[in-house]
Write a structure and sequence with these properties.
By secondary structure, the protein is mainly alpha-helical. The chain has a single domain, classed as Leucine-rich Repeat Variant. The chain has ten helices and no strands. The longest helix has 24 residues. It is globular. It starts with a helix and ends with a helix.
């Protein structure tokens, strides 16, 4: 597929995705709506796995992940964590979702970055910020700490931060120790 074709398809996907998101935002939540959203996201994830060089699929997932419809956004973020290398082009906007006011979205963004492992290295700073500052939603902090450990040796600069957080929260101590072990 030529670069021009991919750009055109990306634009079409963004327009269609945006139209879908707008439609979903203005329609009352229902089981049918959720089934349609879930099916669309599942289809995009499958397509991204089958054609990892095509930027259209992760971009469309990102558009949905940035929507105001919590169910769709949360599921799209989960999908981004499942597509492996295809997600590398949307890492920075995915990391921005760590700051989402929707706790489900921020938690799944941290979990997605954790699942992506070493691919998440470019957003180490954002992950460190979450661990350093914490969140009311402790799950997001947990998965951010886990993501740092899953990045591997390139995240060693985070060791002082992880060590400093030990003992501050019994809930987080286990994952902090596990991440430290992975980085040492």
């Amino acid at each position: 597929m030529s670069r021009r074709t991919c750009v055109i398809l990306s634009l079409v996907a963004l327009i269609v995705g945006s139209a879908l998101v707008l439609l979903l935002v203005f329609v009352v939540d229902s089981p049918i709506k959720r089934q349609l959203v879930h099916a669309r996201i599942k289809k995009l994830v499958r397509a991204a796995k089958e054609d990892p060089l095509n930027a259209c699929y992760p971009n469309e997932l990102l558009v949905i992940a940035q929507s105001k419809y919590s169910f769709a956004a949360t599921n799209a973020v989960v999908g981004l964590g499942e597509i492996g290398n295809s997600a590398s082009i949307v890492l920075v906007p995915l990391a921005e979702l760590l700051k989402s006011p929707d706790d489900f979205v921020s938690r799944e963004a941290a979990r997605a970055l954790s699942r992506l492992g070493p691919l998440s290295a470019p957003v180490l700073g954002e992950l460190k910020d979450v661990v350093k500052n914490g969140r009311a939603d402790v799950d997001t902090t947990w998965f951010a700490a886990e993501a740092i450990g899953n990045i591997g040796p390139t995240a060693r600069e985070a060791l002082p931060l992880l060590r400093a957080k030990i003992g501050k929260s019994k809930i987080l101590d286990r994952i902090l120790l596990e991440s430290i072990r992975k980085l040492e």
